[in-house]
Amino acid sequence: MDLNSLQFCQLQKDQIPLVNQFYKQVYKKGLANKSEQVFVIKNQQILCAARLKTVQGATLLTGVACLPALRGQGLASNLLTQLLSAQIQTIYCFPYPHLQIFYQRLGFQTLEAATLPEKLGIQYQRYNSRKPLLCMIYAGNNVNKSA
Fold this sequence. Notes:
Blueprint: E1 7-10, H1 16-26, E2 37-42, E3 46-55, E4 58-66, H2 75-85, E5 91-93, H3 100-105, E6 109-110, H4 118-130, E7 136-138
Parallel strand pairs: 4-5
Antiparallel strand pairs: 1-2, 2-3, 3-4, 5-7, 6-7
C-alpha cells in the first residue's frame, strides 16, 4: 500500500454513517454520533478511524480502529499523530492494558482514575467494570511533556 496515496481528514457531520459502517465491519461496538469529531485515514474507503468526544468539558479519545488486514502497518499511529498534532487541550483515553506502550509512544501518560473529571470518572468506572482498562492522558501540544 502506498502511504502517500492515503488521506487524513475529519469527517463532516453528514459523513458519520460512513464511519459507523466501518465500525460495524471492524469494531463491532460503539457508533459515532454527530456531536463527536471523527477522524479517518482513507483511500477509496476508510482504513482507520478515531473519535474525540466531549464529556462534561473533557475530551475523550475513543473508537480507535483499523481494518484487521492493515493492522501493524502504522496506520493508527499515523492517524493519532496527525489528530493529536492539531489539539491543544488535554485528551483522555481508556485503552486496554496491552496497548499501553503504543499510547505512551504517542505522548500519553498513565493517570490515576481518581483524578479524572467527575463524569469521565464515572464513565471510566463503567467501562472498567466490563474489561480492565488503563486511564491515560495526553497533555496537549501547549504543555511540556516529560520523556
